[in-house]
Amino acid sequence: MDHQLQVFIAVAEKKNFSRAAEELHMTQPAVSQYIRSFEEAIGVRLLERTNKYVRLNQAGEIVYHHAKEIVGLYSKMQNLVDDLANKASGPLSIGASYTFGEYVLPRILSKLMRDYPSIEPVVTIGNTADITELVISHQLDVGLIEGQFKETIPLQNENFAEDAMYVVVSPNHPLTKQTKRISIQDLEDDMWLLREERSGTREAAETFFSQSDFSPSRTMQFSSTQPIKESVEAGLGISFLSQWAIQKELQYGDLKTIPVKGTPFKRNFSIVTNSPFQTKALQVFIELLRNSGELTVLTKKMGLSKK
């Protein structure tokens, strides 16, 4: 692969010639020469340089985006060729949405590393939209996302597990003693603690609200699930979360679910990839997801059904 691309990406990410040179085990003058040659080949300046910073200009942003995609494709190509003569090994870049990535994926990775110690997984956790974009740009080999997959997105998609979502409240909420199903309209005056837009959990909440013809009057937004759980436990408000995310809190009584009509709300987790060609490492990981005993134990333990 063109070494100029690697040097350019390092400078763009480190925002500093010296730090890029250190990472690449090169001298700073050599890095500067690579960048000059690369800019001459492209025909335009890509970096704004001052004594205080180095940053991408508009042309640099375009080149950086495509350079990352080229590097991802090159690595994938090399791994596929290597696989022809070797067993499952090497790097595997995995992206996962927060719910699956934080609460289920660690168990899957533990089994993967026991069975295939030569595989080198690198994990990125983010919201569903961000993980999807990274798979599209070939910066991730596979994404594990939640919610409704948009058919217009040019990715291979496979549902592999079912999730169930519940309205969760603090143990002191007045409706925890409720045995009959209530209408979600009875919760209109509660503060709803929700994930940020573009997350699968937020999408599920909004779908559930829409299907129930409900609009919460007060909401507060969080960028991850853990502070939502802590805030619900503290009595700040109520939320709508995956049973995978609240397993321990339900077990120890820190959170409670209440019987709301329309719950449990079901959604799917999906595997998304961006190439019909898969390395052996990716193949065995996907098969592990499809057939994992860990996932089966989890879904049975939490009252879910594996698809």
The main sheet comes to: 7 strands, mixed
Supply the number of helical segments.
12
Let me know the average pLDDT. 87
Could you say which overall geometry the principal axes of the C-alpha atoms support?
A: elongated
Low-confidence stretches: 302-307
Strand content: 15-25%
Number of strands: 11
Distance between the termini: 41 Å
Structural class: alpha/beta
Provide the helix percentage: 40-55%
Spell out the helices and strands N to C. Answer: HHHEEHEHHEHEEEHEHEHEEHH
Properties at a glance:
two-stranded antiparallel ribbon; 307 residues; elongated; 44% helix; disordered C terminus; alpha/beta
Structure commentary:
The chain is of the alpha/beta class and 307 residues long. The chain is built from 12 helices and 11 strands. The protein has helices spanning 3-14, 17-24, 28-42, 58-83, 98-103, 105-115, 128-136, 200-211, 225-233, 247-252, 280-291, 293-301, and strands at 47-49, 54-56, 90-97, 119-126, 142-146, 156-169, 191-195, 218-222, 239-242, 256-257, 265-273. The strands form 3 sheets. Strands 3, 4, 5, 6, 9, 10 and 11 form a 7-stranded mixed beta sheet that branches. A two-stranded antiparallel sheet has the order 1-2. A two-stranded parallel ribbon has the order 7-8. It is elongated and about 70 Å long.
